[in-house]
Write a structure and sequence with these properties.
Length: 586
C-alpha cells in the first residue's frame, strides 16, 4: 500500500508549503492514543475528513481507509499525520519513486538526518517573544537587525562571516560577531523543514517542527526580523522534570544550539513507554525495532553488591558495600580517607571495576603539588608533527576530558564510568578543577570551557572516587567546597572494614593471627588516629618469608612513626618496636 501526493509551491497561512494527498491513497484505520494531544490540528482535520466522507472505508485494502478525492493539507507533515494517525515527520516520510525523501529532493542538506535545535526567545532585549509571537503565530525568529536584506538560505559560513564583519563592524565585538556567525549559519543553512525546534519560556520547554524556509521580515520590530514557520505542540514540558542530559544541553548560553546528542530524549517527551511503542509501530510497521527514546529513558544502574564481592574484598559486611553504592548513586563523587596502608586505592579500583563492569571503564590519575588544570582537563601542550617533525602547541585533552568524552559516546551512556583520583588532597584543588568545581555540584548544567570554548557538562554516568591520605594532610584542611561536593567515607584501623581486615586475610591465607595481634597492639599505642598503621603493610607475601616480618617492621613501619614523632625525643624502638610489642602480648 502506497500513498501518493505532491508538494505545492503555494504556502499556507504559517509559511509552510502545502501538500496534496491524491485520491485513492490508503489511510490507517486507527490512530495512536497520543495523536489527539500531540497533534490536535491533524487529529481534528482527519476526523472532519472522515465525517464528511472525504476519507472512507476502503474496498481495495481490508481493514484500512482510503481518500475519496484529492486532499490539500497545510504541510507535508500534516498530510502524513492524517494518513498514518500519529505524529510523524512528513519531510522524511514522503519519498520519490526512487526512495529519496522529500527534503532531499528539494536539494537542502541532502542525506542529513533531521536535527533538533534550541532557539532562545524568552528574553530578547527584555521581551518574551515565545509567548508574544512564536507560539501564537507559529514562528521561530532571530534578531539580525543590521544584517543586509537578501541573504539567501544555504549561505556558506565564510561568506556569512564577511557580511557580518561589514554589517556589524561598529556595533559588535569580535567575539559577538563570531557568535552571531554561528547562530545565523545554523538558522539559515543548517536548519531545514522537518527539523525539531525547542525553546524555553516560563519554566517550560516547548517543542515544534520547522515547516518552511527562513525569511527576512521587514518590520518595526527589529527583534524578530529573521523568521521560520513552526508548528508548535500545544503544551509545554516542565523544565524541572526534563531528563538530566537534556537540561545540560539546554543550559548552554548560545542563542541557537544543536541538540542532536539528546534527540532521543526530546522525541520521548510527554509520551509513555507504551505510546512510544505504538507510534514506532505505526511508522515502521515492525514488531521489534529499536526505539531510541526508550533506550535513552532506560535508567542508569549500579550493580547490587554481592556477598561474593564482600568475600573477595574481605569486607566485614555486604551492607557496608551497599552503602558505598548508595552514596555513589546519590552524590556521584566519593572520597575514601584514612591513614596510610588502609587499602584506599585498592578498594577504589576494585569497586570501580565492579560497578563499571570492567577495567575499560576506569581511569586513574594521581594528584601532586605541581598538578594543574591543564594536566587534568585540557590545555595547550607541545606536540611534534609526525610529518614535518616541527613542534607546536596544540590543545590536548587530559584524563577527565578523555573519560567524559568516552562516557558520553553513543552506546556508552548507560554504562557507568569511573575516574579514580589518588591522593586527591595533595594538590591545589581549586587550581586543578577550575570551572569544573561548579559541575561537580550542578550536574544538570554546562559551562563554557576556558581553552576550547566548548560547552561542557559532566555525563550523568561519570563517577569520581578520590583517595585521601590523612597522614599527608589532615582532612580538616579540606575546603568547604570540596566537602560539599564529595561524600567522605573513613577507612581507619579503628573501624570496620579496616579494623579486622588483616585478621580476615590471615585466616583466608591459613596463617597465624599473631601479626594481627601485633598490629592491634601497635595502634593502641598511637594516640592520633590519622597516624595509625593500616593492615596492607602486613598483607604482602614477603612479610611471611624468613625474617620478613622483622624486616617490614624495621624498614616500613618504624620510619613512619619516627617521622611522626620527629623532635619529641621518644624512643621509637622501645615504644613501637617488634620486641616490645611481642613482650606486651606475653
Amino acid at each position: 500500500m502506497v500513498a501518493r501526493g505532491r508538494l505545492l509551491t503555494e504556502r499556507g497561512a504559517k509559511g509552510s508549503r502545502k501538500f496534496v494527498v491524491l485520491a485513492g491513497s490508503p489511510v490507517r484505520a486507527n490512530t495512536v492514543p497520543s495523536f489527539a494531544t500531540r497533534k490536535p490540528p491533524s487529529y481534528y482535520t482527519r476526523q472532519q475528513l472522515i465525517d464528511t466522507g472525504a476519507i472512507r472505508r476502503s474496498d481495495r485494502w481490508p481493514g484500512c481507509l482510503e481518500t475519496m478525492s484529492d486532499i490539500e493539507c497545510t504541510s507535508p507533515s500534516s498530510a502524513a499525520e492524517i494518513l498514518m494517525g500519529c505524529s510523524v515527520n512528513g519531510w522524511g516520510v514522503w519519498k520519490s519513486a526512487e526512495g529519496v525523501s522529500l527534503i532531499d529532493c528539494l536539494g537542502q542538506s541532502p542525506a542529513v538526518p533531521n536535527r533538533p535545535w534550541l532557539v532562545r526567545g524568552s528574553n530578547v532585549t527584555g521581551l518574551d517573544l515565545v509567548q508574544r509571537l512564536w507560539l501564537p503565530e507559529g514562528l521561530v525568529t532571530l534578531a539580525a537587525t543590521r544584517l543586509r536584506q537578501g541573504v539567501r538560505q544555504g549561505i556558506g559560513k565564510d561568506e556569512l562571516r564577511n557580511l557580518i564583519q561589514e554589517d556589524y563592524e561598529s556595533t559588535a565585538t569580535y567575539s559577538q560577531q563570531q557568535a552571531l556567525v554561528e547562530d545565523l549559519h545554523a538558522f539559515l543553512s543548517r536548519m531545514k523543514p522537518g527539523d525539531t525546534v525547542c525553546t524555553i519560556s516560563g519554566g517550560h520547554l516547548y517543542v515544534g517542527e520547522v515547516t518552511g524556509e527562513p525569511e527576512q521580515h521587514q518590520s518595526e520590530d527589529r527583534r524578530s526580523n529573521l523568521r521560520r514557520p513552526v508548528e508548535w505542540q500545544p503544551t509545554g514540558h516542565s523544565y524541572d522534570e526534563l531528563p538530566e542530559e537534556l537540561q545540560q544541553k539546554l543550559s548552554s548560553q548560545h542563542d541557537v544550539v544543536d541538540l542532536t546528542s539528546v534527540q532521543a530524549d526530546i522525541e520521548g517527551l510527554g509520551l509513555t513507554d507504551q505510546e512510544l511503542v505504538e507510534e514506532a509501530e505505526a511508522v515502521e510497521h515492525g514488531p521489534s525495532m529499536e526505539i531510541p527514546a526508550l533506550t535513552a529513558r532506560r535508567e542508569l544502574e549500579l550493580p547490587e553488591p554481592t556477598d561474593s564481592l564482600a568475600g573477595e574484598l574481605l569486607v566485614h559486611d555486604t551492607e557496608w558495600l551497599r552503602e558505598i553504592r548508595d552514596l555513589l548513586w546519590d552524590e556521584r563523587q566519593l572520597v575514601l580517607y584514612g591513614p596510610p596502608g588502609t587499602g584506599k586505592t585498592y578498594l577504589a579500583l576494585k569497586l570501580a571495576e565492579f560497578f563499571g563492569g570492567g577495567p575499560e571503564q576506569v581511569k586513574l590519575v594521581q594528584f601532586h603539588p605541581s598538578y594543574a588544570y591543564e594536566d587534568f582537563f585540557e590545555g595547550f601542550r607541545p606536540q611534534e608533527d609526525a610529518q614535518t617533525r616541527e613542534v607546536a602547541f596544540r590543545l590536548t585533552a587530559g584524563p577527565l576530558r578523555e573519560l567524559a568524552d568516552l562516557a558520553s559516546r553513543e552506546g556508552n551512556r548507560h554504562i557507568p564510568h569511573f575516574l579514580i583520583i589518588d591522593e586527591i588532597n595533595r594538590a591545589n584543588l581549586a587550581k586543578i578543577f577550575g570551572e569544573l568545581y561548579f559541575l561537580l555540584e550542578y550536574r544538570n548544567k554546562s559551562v563554557r570551557l576556558t581553552y576550547s570554548g566548548d560547552d561542557f557538562a559532566l555525563p550523568p554516568n561519570l563517577f569520581v572516587i578520590g583517595t585521601m591520605n590523612t597522614a599527608d594532610r589532615s582532612i580538616a584542611l579540606v575546603d568547604a567546597a570540596m566537602r560539599r561536593r564529595f561524600a567522605f567515607v573513613e577507612l581507619s584501623p579503628r573501624t570496620e572494614p579496616t579494623r579486622g581486615l588483616l585478621r580476615r586475610w590471615l585466616a583466608k591465607e591459613g596463617k597465624d593471627a599473631v601479626p594481627a595481634d601485633l598490629l592491634d597492639a601497635l595502634n593502641s599505642r598511637i594516640d592520633e588516629p590519622d597516624f595509625r598503621i593500616g593492615p596492607s603493610y602486613l598483607m604482602k607475601r614477603g612479610v611471611y618469608r624468613d625474617g620478613g616480618l622483622k624486616r617490614t617492621w624495621r624498614t616500613k613501619i618504624l620510619p613512619l612513626l619516627e617521622e611522626h614523632h620527629y623532635g619529641e625525643g621518644i624512643d621509637i624502638e622501645k615504644r613501637y618496636g617488634l620486641a616490645a610489642l611481642t613482650e606486651s602480648l606475653g
